[in-house]
Amino acid sequence: METVRLVLLFAHLLGWAALFGGLLAQAREPYKRVNAAMRDGVGTAFVTGLLMVGVLEAGDEPVNHAKIAVKLVIGLVLLVLVMANVRKERIPQGLWAGLMLLTALNVAVAVFWSPAHT
């Protein structure tokens, strides 16, 4: 079970990195848009996060449901915002900045809210 959790964690981190990288790649561009890295990254991160919770619930360690709920809400907001704007030619600068902040916040919650793997 630990191997499955680690594989899911790896894919989860890659998903967040793809979303953040897709956003960061546009930092100097005058017009922002939802690109494939953002779309695929947020989808990967969200689905692997859900699967990881399932694996954690099946294990013997206690699961921090408050942390999971916070990450779920942030992840769901990101997923909805990205998918709602995927076909638009451009997105507002404020939305782009909000996506950056929410992505960083979700990673910060994962890193700084103890214990490490729940």
Automatic annotation (TrEMBL):
Keyword set, alphabetical order: Membrane, Transmembrane, Transmembrane helix
Keyword Transmembrane helix among UniProt keywords: yes
Superkingdom, natural source: Bacteria
Transmembrane regions: 6-25, 37-56, 68-86, 95-113
Record protein name field: Integral membrane protein
Species in which this protein is naturally found: Nocardioides flavescens
